[in-house]
Structure formats: C-alpha cells, structure tokens
From TrEMBL:
Role according to the record: With LigD forms a non-homologous end joining (NHEJ) DNA repair enzyme, which repairs dsDNA breaks with reduced fidelity. Binds linear dsDNA with 5'- and 3'- overhangs but not closed circular dsDNA nor ssDNA. Recruits and stimulates the ligase activity of LigD.
Protein name: Non-homologous end joining protein Ku
Biological process annotations from GO: DNA recombination; double-strand break repair via nonhomologous end joining
Pfam families per the UniProt record, alphabetical: Ku
Molecular function GO terms recorded: double-stranded DNA binding
Swiss-Prot/TrEMBL keywords: DNA damage, DNA recombination, DNA repair, DNA-binding
Family: Belongs to the prokaryotic Ku family.
Lineage, highest ranks first: Bacteria, Pseudomonadati, Pseudomonadota, Alphaproteobacteria, Hyphomicrobiales
Annotated ranges, domain Ku: 56-186
Region of interest: Disordered: 256-308
Gene this protein is translated from: ku
Length: 308
C-alpha cells in the first residue's frame, strides 16, 4: 500500500537532538459526501463568480485583493507581496519547547490531528528515543512550528510506534466557559437522586470504540442517492415519538430499573403525588363468649408487616 502524501516535512528538534519527520493528516474530510450547486433547469454545475456590487460586473482573479475592514465600508488594502513580506518564513523546524503531564491540556484547545513519523530511515533511532522517552515519562511535548504560513503550537504524544500531533487553538480563539455557564444555578444533588444517577452511570460504563460511531446523516444521504440512481422511492425517516413529560425522580428510577411508588394524578395542572396506601378493613368481630377467659390480643395476619 503506497504511503499517503505528507502535508509537511521538516525536523523535530529538542536541544541538539533532531530528526527528520513527516506530518500526515489524520482526519479525512474528503471521504464525506459533498454536494455541488447545479442549475435546476439545465443540470449544469454553476460557476462561482465575484461580483462588484456597484458595477454589477464580475471581477477577474488578478483584480481581487485582500482588505481588512477598519470601519463600515472602509478597508485597508493588503497586496499579496505585502502579506508575504511580514508573515514568518518557515524554517521547517518543529521545535519542542517543553514537556508537560498528559492530562494538563484541556481538550477544548485541540484543533486538527496529525500523524508524525520519521521522514527517512536515518531518523528512526532519534525518533524512537524521543517517543519512548515521552512514553516512559508519561508526558506530552509542546512544540512550535510554522505550518501553512502560520505559527502554530502543537501537542505531541506517543502512539504505538509513532507520534500524534494536535495543532492547538490560540487562547483568544476560545470563549471563556463562564459565558456559557454563568446563568446555571449552583444546585447540590443529594440523597436518592444522586444514588440513582451513580447507579445509572455505573451500569452504563463502557470503552471508547470509534468503530461503533454511526454517521446517520452520511448513511441517509448515501441511501437517498442510490435510490434516485436506481429509480426507486427513498426510505423516509420515521417521525420521532413525542417526548413524555415525566418527573425527574420518575425518569431516574426508570433509567435505573428501580421500582417507583404508585402515583395518583391530581386535578388538571397539578403535580402527581404518591398514592396513599388504602386502609385495610377491620376484621369482623363476633359476640364475646360468656366466659371468664381473657380475649385474644394477637393482631390479624393482614396487619402484620414483614421486617425489612
């Protein structure tokens, strides 16, 4: 099987140790179903053009230039050679800056995954030393490189005989969690609710297996394309069942397989409450015999509750 084409080649370096490496994309976005825009009447694929809104005429590629908007409809024009003169030149070096514990980087910073491998047989020994050293120390490396004309920080970790590199997002690209979580009330769940939640989590424990992930959108679209090619009706999705409004405790008990106490409904709009146990009928009494014997003081069996 031929080797995939490398996205980048350079040297992985720490101190005086360096080795030639190749970076390969780990994610294959090209495998996804893609659509083109067609003319409904002719079936021809439509060509995209950039139109000047003032003149209404298309603009040739040579006349297109980048511009940074400083105020509404006011731009600073940036020529291609001007941009190229200020952005850093790649020195083809993936320079390791530090080693940190494996779990110290929040996954919210992860961007794109890559495979990192020796670029040639001469780099095998140095590559193995670095890989095994990280695996033994249970650390990952933070490295910096100019990738695709941008300075990027990468997290590098050992994986099998190779290394996996994740480009990391910059701090300014990540929204503070406080913006999303600030309005969530601080509730402390205790008692049966927490016990049921723990039980559900315990019974649902598993292992990470991406082979079990199902891309239902891709599968549905592929089936639709096949059906139209074969001239048969496509299988339509089933309408989702209406969600039932249930009490939180009821839902937890049902999920945990626990039995809930019987409930009775109140008037419209009211909340359901636990049904009170029906009172048992009193045993029929008979006329006391005309004797001097003491009456039986034992309770009827129907009243006796089993312990526990």
């Amino acid at each position: 099987m031929p080797l995939p084409r490398a996205n980048w080649k350079g040297h992985l370096k720490i101190g005086e140790l360096n080795c030639a490496v190749a970076l390969f994309s780990a994610a294959l976005a090209s495998e996804r179903i893609a659509f083109h825009i067609l003319n409904r009447k002719t079936g021809n694929r439509i060509r995209r053009e950039f139109i000047d809104p003032a003149t209404g005429k298309p603009v040739d590629r040579d006349d297109q230039v980048k511009g940074y908007e400083v105020s509404p409809d006011d731009y600073v024009v940036l020529e291609p050679d001007e941009v190229a003169s200020v952005v850093p030149d790649s020195d083809k070096t993936l320079a390791i800056k530090s080693f940190i514990p494996c779990d110290q980087v929040d996954t919210v910073y992860f961007d794109k995954p890559y495979y990192l491998a020796p670029a040639n047989a001469m780099a095998d020994d140095a590559f193995a030393v670095l890989r095994d050293g990280m695996a033994t120390g249970k650390v990952v490396a933070l490295a910096r490189a100019i990738l695709f004309r941008r300075v990027r920080t990468l997290l590098i970790r050992p994986e099998g005989t190779g290394l996996i590199a994740h480009t990391l997002k910059f701090d300014y690209e990540i929204r503070p969690a406080k913006e999303a979580f600030d309005d969530i009330p601080e509730l402390k769940i205790k008692g049966e609710m927490l016990d049921l939640a723990k039980h559900i989590i315990t019974t649902k424990k598993g292992h990470f297996d991406p082979a079990t992930f199902e891309d239902r959108y891709e599968a549905a679209v592929a089936d639709l394309v096949r059906a139209k090619m074969e001239g048969r009706p496509a299988k339509r999705r089933r309408a989702p069942a209406e969600a039932k409004v249930v009490d939180l405790m009821e839902a937890l008990r049902a999920s945990a397989g626990a039995k809930a106490p019987a409930r009775r409904a109140t008037a419209a709009g009211g909340r359901a409450t636990a049904a009170k146990p029906k009172a048992t009928s009193k045993p029929k009494t008979t006329a006391k015999p005309k004797t001097t014997a003491k009456p039986n003081t034992k309770m009827p069996r129907s009243r006796v509750k089993k312990a526990g």
